[in-house]
Design brief:
With 210 residues, the protein is an alpha+beta fold. It folds into 2 domains: 84 residues, Glutaredoxin (3-Layer(aba) Sandwich); 126 residues, Leucine-rich Repeat Variant. Helix content is 59%, strand content 10%. It is built from 12 helices and 4 strands; from the N terminus they run βαβαββαααααααααα. Strand 3 and strand 4 form a beta hairpin. Helix 7 runs parallel beside helix 10. The chain is elongated, with a radius of gyration of 20 Å. The model has no long low-confidence stretch (mean pLDDT 92).
């Protein structure tokens, strides 16, 4: 059963409604646990989660900024309990434009990055989702060691049927600055699509200059 953490302030015009909705869901047994914190009194909690606006809600491992209806909260609860379907939930967050929430979440839970690469491995991935995934990965550019753990998944993407996905994979491989990634990028210099070859070449140059 999903646990919830709600961060509020005493001056927030939407927080009381969120508090009421979540309290009702707790009483009805839809939530397993509910913790509500006024960050005016506990600013360290806001700092820990890098909260920029309230109401701020954490459902399981998913995080949301802004007011939500009861129906939206229930839908997200169902997703969090849908056999661990993180990919579906993350896709929806990116569709909703909650990029900052996903980036913040990934910084604290880097395991989410593999879920994002799995999303990219799908077919007909919308451009907004692709851009969002790239933005999240790019937020880890200063942590190439962590990105290196994802090299096998990135290399798999270099064989994807979609040229744009192969190009994204080359970009990500360049950010790892590793010898293993450079070998994969060198192979991509033979890709039939010029776009992929160009990204692979640029990534090799950047990686060599790092």
């Amino acid at each position: 059963m999903t646990d919830a953490l709600l961060l509020v302030t005493s001056t927030c015009p939407h927080c009381s409604a969120m508090m009421k909705q979540l309290s009702e869901l707790l009483k009805e047994g839809v939530l397993g646990r509910l913790e509500m914190i006024n960050i005016g009194s506990r600013p360290e909690v806001a700092a820990r989660y890098k909260v920029r606006s309230v109401p701020w809600l954490k459902l399981g491992e998913l995080e949301f900024s802004g007011a939500m209806t009861r129906q939206e909260i229930e839908q997200w609860i169902q997703l969090t309990e849908g056999q661990g379907d993180n990919e579906k939930a993350l896709t929806q967050q990116l569709k909703d434009g909650a990029l900052d929430d996903v980036v913040s979440m990934a910084q604290r839970h880097p395991g989410i990055l593999s879920d994002l690469l799995s999303i990219l491995a799908g077919t007909n991935v919308p451009l907004t989702i692709r851009i969002g995934i790239s933005a999240v990965l790019e937020s880890f550019e200063d942590r190439p060691g962590l990105l290196s753990a994802l090299i096998p998944a990135m290399l798999n993407l270099t064989a994807h049927e979609d040229p744009a996905t192969r190009a994204d994979a080359c970009h990500f491989l360049g950010m790892t600055r590793s010898d293993e990634a450079r070998k994969g990028l060198e192979d991509c210099l033979e890709d039939p699509e010029m776009m992929v070859r160009e990204i692979a070449r640029e990534s090799l140059e950047e990686s060599s200059g790092a």
